[in-house]
Amino acid sequence: MSNETAYASQVRTVYDLTHEELAERLSSWGEPAYRASQVWSQLWKRAATYDQMSDVSPALRERLEDEIPLGVEVLDERLADRGATRKALLRLGGAHVIEVVVMGYRDRATACISSQAGCAMGCTFCATGQMGLMNNLTAGEIAAQAVWARREAAKLPPSTPQRLTNVVFMGMGEPLANERHVLGALGMLTDRAAFGLGARHVTVSTVGLVPGIARLAETHPQVGLAVSLHAASDELRDQLVPPNRLWPLAPLETAIAAWRAATRRRPSIEWAMIDRVNDTEEQAELLAPIARRLSAHVNLIPLNPTPGYPVVGSSPARIRRFVGVLERAKVNVTVRDTRGRTIDAACGQLAQRAAAAE
Ligand code: SAH
Ligand code: SF4
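^ thats the input. predicted complex w/ S-adenosyl-L-homocysteine below
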């Protein structure tokens, strides 16, 4: 995507502007043309805030802050795992409070970003779902979180790459319920003239909104797909993941298969392990053929306890049994590590606590 393409349709942060729009604003203030490029590359490449732009005059920095606010305020920051997990509560566009996490590993550093403040999908076990939807984020508000994460990644421990290598849409919100802005954000993140991350290093996680999966394949075929399945029978999935009533397992599997055929990439299936609810051998046996047909990678997530859902996560023994069934069926499966438990670094919990405290 080039600079000429307008990817944002609503402007709430400076990141919602195209390079051209920024240039027009600065030229109307009498600034030379190169100034816009200077500010643009500081914003996107160096991940600088206005006050860090030492090559821009203090007067211009002040005017920028007044007239085109950065739109990103850090309300709270927390660290866990000896600094390898770093989480922020951000206020975006002066109004929307969301959370973003960056996790450093030996070989990568991944940002987990939010697409909405809250979520309307109502998955019973999810803290964000328990909040309901407050707002959609704009493309710039979404991309700005990756910019924060790029800046923050430099502070990760030396045992990590100390630079951002991956972005996943696994924070708050359902990306495909805010499709226009999420597709816009994907444009910004993968545009070499803007954020410039390889599309293969970006993954969208969805609860399974079927029409959006096809459009993701059309518009961003290199971007990865993770589908939050959590149940392999419609009866159980209807309870855990309400959108299943609209798009049950059969059409969802067809949509994932079409995505795989169009992109030639391996999809992921996400599965939160909930004690005696979806961690039974019966569910594993129903999941195995679906995962096989899709050549999917199954990612088991130990359940993070949330205030609005009384059931606990599966025991290690039950997780082992579930994994055993899948492995015997030759399904590719891993158990995700639980990063940042002590700072509620999963799915909307920090934001929820902050909202409760206000
Ligand atoms: N709305 C999207 C992306 C955000 S949620 C989706 O549902 O895929 C990111 C992942 O965290 C999803 O797989 C979601 O099901 C999972 N998740 C939500 N609540 C959780 C909890 N309490 N414990 C573990 N995983 C959870
Ligand atoms: Fe929304 Fe995803 Fe949470 Fe479901 S799991 S409520 S889709 S954020």
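Residues 119, 121-123, 126, 128-129, 173-174, 207, 228, 347 surround iron/sulfur cluster (ligand 2) (CB under 6 Å).
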